[in-house]
Specification:
single chain; alpha+beta; six-stranded mixed beta sheet; 28 helices; globular
Length: about 950
């Protein structure tokens, strides 16, 4: 018989090449990680949160080591036992026996295999473990909730912090035992402990004992899993279309089944352990069959039978206790308990008189005319100043008190937009050393415009800007208006700073340059750090540029949201940071949430879907669409727009999840008492939290389990009526709106976040939800619930009424004929005088002029009851609905007080001069347009089609004259 052929040997050169290749791979992978670690190390040192990086890294390293040693050690032990238990003599089936060849290779390199296999498997397992570092930290620092689940009586912290960790440990043990079983099986086969020759094959006593113990251990772990499965029933999705939590079937069939299967699994494990000392494998085989059959009959069939024949025919009664638990848990988990949500009856119908409307001085004077979602192009065209400046796609709403009067403002930071650089501005020096920062804070009263479009000869309908920048001190003064950190600076790095006596190089204005003097940025004065960042950014200029000196610093991670996420990785962040002037400085305010996936009996909400609306894709980031069953706005974070300072304030200090993370990262979250009064005045109730809560309130305003089961009283979030072609999905939902207005039963106006809700699968209004952002009443939610027997029109129906009104349709067609496009602003719902007032701005924009056009407020649509108003002035539109004099309270178009608004010159904006005094032909043409519109209205009112034709001809002639006068 020819002996088995040995493995081919490697030449010295081949071995050296393989070693060099391995070293190169390690350097490429490890070197990149080391480089990134050092860059992060410098950045965390800049923001003062290096303890977060070190704590996270330490936890990940420990996890890597523990899991790697656990899995690798068990694998090594398994291989050693399997090799030691090999038969002394192993028969060979023939000269071409493939098993013999493999066995020879392994024996020749036994040390290599016995070390390499456990090390490689241990490394793979260790590398997968660090992603679960948050689970470990939450387990180590878990804080009691002081509340227990209604079924097992455990504190909620057990499900939030302890159970996930125990599940993690159990899963890794499953992985380790499974790998060990497979490797033991292969090893025993290769070394003859298991042979497949003959009818029944052969298994040595040692191999049988080894494999039986591993199988018994696996089954014993399964018994532990059955024990933990009992707790998983508390967030069961068996009846997820109605509610989450343990159902009648879960409690009366599945729960006992888990205990029965646990006992059977323990018996089955004992049978395997007994088989390690007995040659008869029938007992463990019978036990496995019994476990499988029991899992099918007891764990699957019995619950299905009970559900089908006992629960389904009487589900409303059977599930009532579970629904009651679900209602209580969901309200508690998402902060919509009765002490936080005040549900009030509201008629929704009224025959208000002009005097009653004028008397509502909390709401009418503060009606918001400017839609922040529509004005990005307007802000850009009129306040951009230079091509490389820009504004966030979605502007923000905040409130300021000027001259003793509080009102809401559309606000934005004028940021550096690297994507807008053109020509030579895109040179590396210009891009990273010259154009480094934005300039200014721009605001406009949300309830005012400069003048009606017609009254200003076509130049009206624009915001009343107030600007604070390096050249102008506006009504909202800013001590340091330069914007080095903002939403448009995601991937842009800048190198700032210069030695004393060196000429400034950063662009500040056409007449001045600037040298950064703030605390932001990482120093790169030494050659080593410059080389590091040259490698990190793949840019040799960082290393060789002579302008970079000992005082230079590099700024990166400049998006406020990214900075907060880096220092608080345990938070989920609201998708809409907003700028505010706080204590004279521009601060980005970011809302942070703590969440849990498994809160007993609480509803599971897909976070991404629940926070989507019609504005998604216009600058807002969608949150990850993971299921959550607990949500708290636990942290308010600020990022200084000049020096990038990040501060985390514990806002909901009673939140056990926040308390847990404060223990994990001590000193990183400041107490709520550190929030200054000025910052408190600009804190808003966050939109994403409100979206989740209003979605839940559509169902969980119902108290009675039977009524909840029938869904007859459920509501819906309306689709946005101003979005054409919407399919009614989550991304077409009407967004909530920030308003400074009054509320029934409230003393004075307040800054609120509001939303209308409609009946389930219907368009009639069912309720109006508002939550306060005022410091004294922050988070207090009011729900005005309309009677079920009324049919008050909802947003979609009101929009349909607007567009189907003959007068409105005619006027809109006239606007379209003037080479303009029409865009509808946010449809606001306002409770006024016992009824509901709808207000919608209408914007026009010149068609075919994408680079130069911008929206202007042309008309205001108003609806109350069955009446519709439409005019260029809100006050006149209100008069049309309520009668003469009703709109007097809305006639406030006074200039902004407390400063000098910065109006850009025509040359700065690249626009033609205004017609007032500068272009008589244009002014005359504008007057002709106004006269033609007046004649057209009169002809339409009289029904004289001939005069309508003449008026349209005069209008077309006047428009042509106006375009000629403006050079258009």
């Amino acid at each position: 018989m020819r002996p088995p052929v040995g493995a081919p040997s490697l030449t010295r050169r081949t071995r050296m090449l393989l070693i060099a290749a391995g070293v190169l791979v390690v350097l490429l992978l490890g070197g990149s990680r080391l480089l990134n670690f050092y860059v992060d190390w410098l950045w965390f040192g800049e923001v003062g949160f290096r303890s977060v990086q070190l704590s996270r890294l330490f936890t990940q390293v420990v996890l890597f080591g523990v899991v790697g040693l656990l899995v690798g050690g068990l694998v090594a032990l398994t291989l050693w036992l399997a090799y030691r238990a090999r038969p002394v003599f192993v028969p060979v089936s023939g000269p071409e026996d493939p098993v013999a060849r493999y066995r020879t290779v392994i024996i020749q390199r036994l040390r290599t295999f016995t070390i390499a296999v456990p090390v490689v498997i241990g490394l793979i397992a260790g590398l997968a473990a660090p992603t679960q570092w948050q689970t470990v930290q939450m387990f180590l620092h878990g804080t009691p909730f002081g509340k227990v689940d209604p079924e097992f009586g455990n504190d909620i912290s057990f499900y939030a912090f302890t159970l996930p960790f125990l599940r993690m440990v159990l899963n890794w043990l499953f992985v380790a035992v499974t790998i060990c079983f497979v490797l033991a099986l292969v090893t025993h086969y290769l070394f003859g402990g298991i042979r497949l020759s003959g009818r029944s094959g052969f298994v040595s006593t040692a191999a049988r004992a080894h494999l039986a113990i591993l199988a018994g251990t696996f089954v014993l772990l399964k018994a532990v899993a059955y024990w933990f499965d009992r707790y998983d029933l508390l967030w069961s999705g068996r009846n997820s279309q109605t509610f989450f939590g343990a159902t009648y079937t879960d409690l009366n069939a599945v729960l006992p089944a888990k205990l029965i299967l646990l006992i059977i699994a323990v018996l089955c494990a004992l049978a395997f352990f007994a088989a390690a000392f007995r040659q008869n494998l029938q007992i463990p085989a019978v036990a496995v069959v019994m476990l499988v059959i029991s899992s099918i009959l007891v764990g699957t069939v019995f619950p299905l039978v009970l559900q089908q024949f006992v629960v389904a025919p009487n589900a409303n009664e059977r599930e009532a206790p579970s629904i009651e638990r679900n209602i209580a848990a969901t309200r508690d988990a998402f902060g919509i308990t009765p002490d936080k949500v005040d549900i009030k009856p509201y008629s929704g119908e009224s025959q208000a008189t002009p005097a009653q409307v004028r008397a509502d001085t909390d709401t009418i004077p503060n009606i918001r005319l400017l839609d922040p979602g529509k004005l990005n192009k307007t802000f850009t065209q009129l306040q951009q100043r230079r091509n490389f400046y820009g504004f966030s796609p979605n502007l923000d709403i905040d409130r300021y008190t000027l001259g003793g009067r509080t009102q809401d403002y559309v606000v934005a930071a004028r940021e550096m937009d690297a994507n807008a650089l053109a020509g030579n501005q895109q040179d590396w020096i210009n891009q990273h050393l010259v154009y480094t920062h934005g300039n200014g804070f721009v605001a406009a009263p949300a309830n005012q415009i400069n003048a009606a479009l017609e009254d200003a000869g076509g130049q009206g309908g624009l915001p009343k800007f107030t600007v604070s920048d390096t050249q102008t001190r506006g009504a909202i003064p800013v001590q340091q208006p330069r914007i080095y950190y903002g939403e448009l600076l995601d991937n842009q790095y800048s190198i700032v700073g210069a030695e004393p006596g060196t000429a400034p190089r950063e662009y500040d204005s056409d007449n001045a340059q600037y040298t950064y003097t703030g605390a932001g940025g990482v120093p790169i004065g030494n050659l080593f750090d410059r080389a590091v960042f040259a490698l990190a950014h793949g840019e040799r200029n960082i290393l060789f540029n002579s302008s970079i000196n000992d005082q230079s610093k590099i700024m990166y991670v400049r998006n406020p949201r990214d900075r907060v996420q880096a220092v608080a990785p345990w938070l989920k962040l609201d998708n809409d940071p907003y700028p505010a002037v706080v204590d004279g400085r521009v601060q980005w305010i970011v809302d942070g949430y703590t969440t849990l996936q498994n809160y007993p009996y609480a509803e599971r909400v897909p976070l991404g879907d629940a926070t989507s609306d019609s504005r998604l894709g216009t600058g807002n980031q969608q949150l990850p669409n993971e299921n959550i069953s607990y949500l708290r706005n636990s942290v308010k974070a600020t990022v200084d727009a000049y020096d990038g300072t990040v501060k985390l304030y514990g806002f909901d200090e009673s939140d056990p999840v926040l308390q847990t993370w404060e223990k994990a990262f001590p000193g990183t979250v400041l107490p709520k008492s550190d929030i200054s009064k000025d910052l408190q005045a600009h804190l808003r109730y966050p939109e994403d939290q409100f979206k989740v809560q209003r979605e839940l309130l559509t169902r969980y305003h119902v108290d009675n389990p039977g009524e909840f089961f029938s869904t007859v009283s459920f509501w819906d979030v309306p689709s946005d009526p101003t979005v054409q072609g919407g399919g009614g999905g989550a991304q077409d939902s009407q967004p909530p709106y920030y308003l400074y207005s009054g509320l029934p039963g409230q003393d004075g106006p307040s800054f609120q976040l509001t939303s209308a809700l409609v009946s389930l699968r219907r368009q009639f209004l069912s309720s109006y939800v508002s939550v306060s952002s005022e410091p004294s009443t922050y988070g207090k939610m009011t729900v005005l619930q309309l009677p079920d027997d009324t049919q008050t029109q909802g947003p979609q129906q009101v929009q349909a009424r607007f567009l189907s009104s003959p007068d409105v349709a005619t006027q809109l067609n006239i606007l379209r004929q003037n080479q303009t496009t029409i865009d509808y602003g946010n449809l606001l719902t306002l409770p006024v005088a016992g009824g509901l007032l709808y207000v919608e701005p209408v914007y026009i924009e010149r068609a075919g002029q994408e680079s130069a056009s911008y929206p202007q407020l042309a008309r205001v649509l108003v609806s109350y009851g069955d009446r519709v108003g439409y005019d260029a002035s809100l006050s006149k539109a209100l008069d049309q609905v309520f009668g003469a004099g009703a709109g007097a309270a809305a006639g406030n178009n006074a200039p902004v007080t407390g400063g000098q608004p910065a109006q850009p010159t025509p040359q700065q904006n690249g626009q033609a001069p205004a017609p007032s005094g500068a272009n008589p032909a244009q002014a005359a043409a504008a007057q002709q347009i106004k006269q033609a519109l007046t004649d057209l209205k009169a002809a339409q009112k009289d029904g004289d089609f001939a005069k309508q034709g003449d008026a349209l001809a005069e209008l077309d002639k006047a428009v042509s004259a106006f375009q000629g006068a403006t050079g258009g």
